[in-house]
Amino acid sequence: ALEWLEDHPPAKPLLELLLACLQDDDRLVQAAVLRAIRRGAVDTADIAAATLRLLDRTKHVPVQLEALYTLGSIANAAGPEVWLPWLKHPSKVVATAALRALRQRERKPEFVNALWSAACDAARRSPHLAEEAWFTLRQLGIPEAQLTKLPARPPAPADKSQLAHAVLSRVNGASAMLGQLSFSSTRTACAAC
């Protein structure tokens, strides 16, 4: 039903339905409405506020990831103070989702500079997060000279054999949810791709 409404949007009633679905207690409804919001580019202050409230109250990781990507796709939905705890999150999957979600829109330099320290801390946690942080910060406009202060990224594979080895070595730690979110995002979201 949400996909049909996305394709046939009645302006105000659709917004009211989306807001009601964001307040629903069913995780499947929450995830579906967050995907519909991203695909339909519903970019209102009410939607941003409701998404933030959902992100604050849910402990269900798949819904958190969907909410992070949705916040990332809404212009000026949240300031750096909202993103900092997600970049510092103990789960590498959640921190990765936060970094990738930040790539969904252009950000002002002051915004990106406010995240610099937390992104550097995330990069020190693992080579994977280092690569994600580097890619995010580069895409958000951090100068190359400043990016050299991040932990070193793994060298790019020199040939198909090395690329296959690098991809296969990541399969065990891969997240299907992150893959789905990256695949369906509007901007390039995977540093490894």
In short:
The protein has helices spanning 2-7, 11-22, 27-40, 45-57, 61-73, 80-87, 92-102, 109-125, 127-139, 144-147, 160-170, 176-183.
Helix fraction by DSSP (H/I, runs of at least 4): 55-70%
Please provide the ordered H/E string of secondary-structure elements: HHHHHHHHHHHH
Taken from the alpha-carbon principal axes, the silhouette is globular
Extended strand count: 0
Tell me the strand percentage band: under 5%
Query: Given the structure, what is the number of helices?
Result: 12
Oligomer: single chain
What structural class do you assign from the helix and strand content?
mainly alpha
Low-pLDDT segments: none
Distance from first to last alpha carbon: 33 Å
State the major sheet: none
Rg estimate, integer Å: 17 Å
**Overall residue-averaged pLDDT value:** 83
Would you mind describing this structure in some detail?
This protein is mainly alpha-helical. The chain is globular.
